[in-house]
């Protein structure tokens, strides 16, 4: 009984722990454990893109209706990130949300089994909706956790490294699809049977992982910890009410537009390849999608390397601009040229999602957990844009022409990258957190010797102390 008592999931939010000052070494284990989650939903997302085309073939549905998979999956995200998962996060903490999300993911995978067996597209969409709730819960906790667990100045690097394993999952799923789902032209019953065994294996794995999370001693990060970070760097904007955090809501809007465009391109990549490239079967299209997702994963690792030397906000602006530049030719080009344009577009998409999360959360302080729900909720763009692309493709009988839809949403998301680079009220808080010395090992050691502010006195460890210093923060802002 003692071990279960020690593993209690109930956490307070007003007391500061040492989690706000974790060094790189101290944060390695929790970051590695949470990174496993990124692979899981990368695999699930890649599987969904492959099944989109598969169900068109096997069940005889059109492109617009097949987008119901994306609508069910990403439509669940705001329900989780702004609803049940965010409530659990604010009242119980990160670990509780990790376990909750994994359990929902496992239940959804089990529900998918009989739906696939009976060839029920509507039932499978319902199962995907449950899985989306689980993954939305995991993203609500995992993205901010990776961002704030460790030295603040490396937040973009951490989240992009973790998200790179998301990219690895999106590569493996289409490869699996090309050799399993589309085997023998993808119309036989055996292919559906193979899909159901994949979902059963997923369910078993995530339930085991939930148990691992329960017994793992990962540090909990409270609102007071985040308020302390923002206060010490004088980068906090949490002196204003939550509804005046306009930087956060702009980031959420950008996430909505960007994610919608990314999901639409990946969801209809196989359609694009089979329509525009001669002699391309659905199986070959899935293999090309795996290659494009490989470019996506490579872009993440490359972006992390560049961010070591260039400010993340500048890398973000460059990558998103190049997404616009390269998606445009795919509308008019055909064959290998058009497919190559999508490959390059996916390469430059790579760092955009996690960098929007990291930049959007910088300086939120005590609003970090609540704010993360809005940014992750922007993922519901993946439920809106693919059906629009599918409808346009059916209208013009051309997926290539419909690529103008993600182009328009990329341009809308571009507004945030411009603001975070050129508008001082956006840029200054981002840069101050990026220059913070909290969690840097040699700084911590010097601070211990000199009795500096990094470690602080016990009475400073509450959110009330941070709020008492608001006049100083306000004077600094003015």
Automatic annotation (TrEMBL):
Which branch of life, at top level?
Eukaryota
Would the keyword Membrane turn up in this protein's UniProt record?
yes
- How does this chain sit within the bilayer? Multi-pass membrane protein
Print the keywords alphabetically.
Answer: Cell membrane, Membrane, Transmembrane, Transmembrane helix
GO cellular component, alphabetical, reads:
plasma membrane
Q: What organism is recorded for this protein?
A: Baudoinia panamericana (strain UAMH 10762) (Angels' share fungus)
| TM segment ranges | 28-48, 68-89, 96-114, 120-142, 163-182, 197-216, 248-270, 282-302, 314-331, 337-361, 373-393, 399-423
Record's subcellular location: Cell inner membrane
Under the heading Pfam families, the entry gives: MFS_1
Q: What is this protein called?
A: Major facilitator superfamily (MFS) profile domain-containing protein
Instruction: List the molecular function annotations (GO) for this entry.
Output: transmembrane transporter activity
**Coiled coil in keyword set:** no
């Amino acid at each position: 009984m003692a071990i279960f008592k020690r593993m209690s999931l109930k956490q307070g939010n007003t007391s500061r722990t040492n989690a706000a000052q974790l060094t790189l070494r101290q944060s390695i284990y929790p970051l590695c454990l949470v990174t496993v989650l990124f692979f899981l939903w990368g695999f699930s997302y890649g599987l969904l893109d492959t099944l989109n085309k598969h169900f068109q073939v096997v069940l005889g549905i059109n492109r617009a209706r097949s987008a119901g998979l994306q609508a069910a999956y990403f439509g669940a995200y705001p329900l989780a990130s702004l609803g049940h998962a965010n409530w659990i996060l604010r009242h119980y903490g990160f670990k509780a949300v990790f376990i909750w999300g994994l359990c929902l993911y496992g239940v959804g995978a089990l529900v998918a089994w009989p739906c696939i067996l009976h060839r029920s597209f509507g039932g499978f969409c319902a199962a995907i909706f449950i899985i989306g709730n689980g993954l939305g819960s995991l993203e609500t906790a995992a993205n901010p956790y990776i961002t704030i667990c460790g030295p603040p100045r490396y937040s973009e690097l951490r989240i992009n490294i973790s998200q790179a394993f998301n990219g690895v999952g999106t590569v493996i799923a289409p490869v699996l699809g090309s050799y399993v789902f589309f085997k023998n032209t993808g119309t036989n019953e055996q292919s559906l049977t193979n899909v159901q065994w994949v979902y059963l294996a997923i369910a078993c794995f995530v339930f085991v992982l939930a148990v691992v999370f329960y017994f793992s001693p990962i540090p909990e990060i409270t609102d007071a910890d985040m308020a302390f970070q923002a206060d010490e760097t004088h980068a906090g904007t949490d002196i204003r009410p939550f509804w005046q955090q306009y930087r956060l809501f702009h980031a959420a809007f950008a996430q909505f537009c960007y994610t919608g465009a990314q999901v639409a391109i990946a969801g209809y990549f196989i359609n694009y390849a089979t329509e525009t490239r001669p002699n391309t079967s659905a199986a070959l299209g899935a293999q090309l999608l795996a290659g494009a997702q490989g470019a996506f994963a490579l872009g993440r690792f490359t972006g992390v390397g560049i961010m070591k030397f260039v400010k993340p906000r500048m890398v973000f602006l460059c990558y998103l601009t190049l997404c616009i530049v390269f998606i445009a030719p795919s509308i008019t080009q055909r064959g290998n040229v058009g497919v190559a344009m999508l490959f390059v577009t996916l390469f430059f998409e790579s760092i955009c999602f996690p960098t929007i999360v990291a930049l959007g959360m910088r300086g939120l302080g005590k609003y970090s957990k609540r704010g993360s729900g809005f940014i992750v909720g922007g993922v519901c763009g993946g439920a809106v844009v693919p059906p629009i692309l599918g409808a346009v493709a059916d209208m013009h009988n051309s997926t290539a022409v419909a690529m103008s839809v993600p182009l328009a949403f990329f341009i809308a998301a571009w507004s945030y990258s411009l603001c975070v680079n050129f508008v001082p009220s956006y840029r200054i808080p981002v840069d101050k957190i990026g220059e913070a010395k909290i969690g840097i090992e040699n700084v911590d050691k010097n601070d211990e010797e000199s009795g500096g502010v990094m470690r602080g006195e016990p009475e400073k460890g509450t959110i009330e102390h941070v709020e008492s210093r608001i006049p100083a923060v306000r004077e600094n802002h003015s």
